[in-house]
Amino acid sequence: MADHKGSTDLRQDRAHSARIYDYFLGGKDNYPADREAAAKIEQAIPSVRGVARDNRAFMVRAVRHLSELGVRQFLDIGTGIPTEPNLHQVAQETTPDARVVYVDNDPIVLAHARALLVGTPDGVTQYVQSDLTAPDRILSAAAVRETLDFDRPVALSLIALCHFVSGDRIYDIVDTLLAPLPSGSYLVMTHLTTDFDPAMVEGTVRAYRQSGIEMEARDYAGVSRFFRDLELLEPGIVAIEDWHPEGKQQAVDGVTVLPNGAPRPPAAGYAAVGRKK
Ligand SMILES: C[S@@+](CC[C@H](N)C(=O)[O-])C[C@H]1O[C@@H](n2cnc3c(N)ncnc32)[C@H](O)[C@@H]1O
């Protein structure tokens, strides 16, 4: 574990989305304020730990899929506290010379950056502490310019991230990030939605906001808008667990069940991958 005692102020008195997510994934990098927020969130969405695991599993499937399609460069914003396998490990499994730049605004992720920067000898991984809401700053960061070749396709991954920015400005932010990427680049996203179980997800949004974390769930139209100029890969914009599910789900009497036979809880988020024309 990285040393947290450096000069960085981790603001442990406040809840942070990276640390709440770390708690749901069973990690140790969270503090009482995060666990208090997590308890409120879990009341609203009892399946939240499974949702976090499903979200992480989508990242693995999507990155593997894009690597098999020949993508060798990834810009991953809202990286989170390292959780094995990390995105570069998945990409470099298929493509040892894959180049990955991670971006997050939580200093605790920076404190762990060393774990993110150990990749294959042929590949490159870099870390930038920056904020999604300042996309030009991300694009002009030296680590981004020096690591990624914008003449070749880049996968921009915004996984479980855009719902932390409310209002329509998020569309301009994502458009700004996609603008310099060449044709054949990809947008990879998961996003919280109220479409499957409105009461559950509205309660989740309330619980985050009560803990001081901005959040907005978006419906199908709101998520589609991110992809309006892109070609969606099959199967389109679907529940996270339905994006190329790798045969782990089965239907019994028309109900999708988990491997333990229990009915699958309602989905909380959409997943999609789109290709820039
Ligand atoms: C729920 S976690 C998702 C982590 C990872 N992408 C995944 O899906 O497994 C959200 C991450 O986004 C980061 N984040 C939230 N708002 C951000 C912002 N405005 N700019 C950069 N990162 C942000 C948080 O610090 C956290 O690490």
What features would you describe in this structure?
36% of the residues lie in helices and 17% in strands. With 277 residues, the protein is of the alpha/beta class. The strands form two sheets. Strands 1, 2, 3, 4, 5, 6, 7 and 10 form an eight-stranded mixed sheet that branches. A two-stranded antiparallel ribbon has the order 8-9. α1 (17-24) packs across α2 (32-44), α2 packs antiparallel against α10 (198-210) and α3 (48-68) packs parallel to α4. The protein starts with 16 loop residues before the first helix and ends with a strand. 42% of the residues are buried. The structure holds S-adenosylmethionine (SAM). The site of S-adenosylmethionine (SAM) has 21 residues, from α1 and α3. Residues 17-18, 21, 55-56, 59, 77-80, 104-106, 109, 131-133, 159-161, 164 line the site of S-adenosylmethionine (SAM).
Task: Provide the fold topology.
Blueprint: H1 17-24, H2 32-44, H3 48-68, E1 73-77, H4 87-94, E2 99-104, H5 107-111, H6 113-116, E3 124-129, H7 135-140, H8 142-147, E4 155-159, H9 169-178, E5 186-192, H10 198-210, H11 220-224, E6 230-232, E7 238-239, E8 250-252, E9 255-257, E10 269-276
Parallel strand pairs: 1-2, 1-4, 2-3, 4-5
Antiparallel strand pairs: 5-10, 6-10, 7-10, 8-9
Helix pairs in contact: 1-2, 2-10, 3-4
Residues 17-18, 21, 55-56, 59, 77-80, 104-106, 109, 131-133, 159-161, 164 line the site of S-adenosylmethionine.
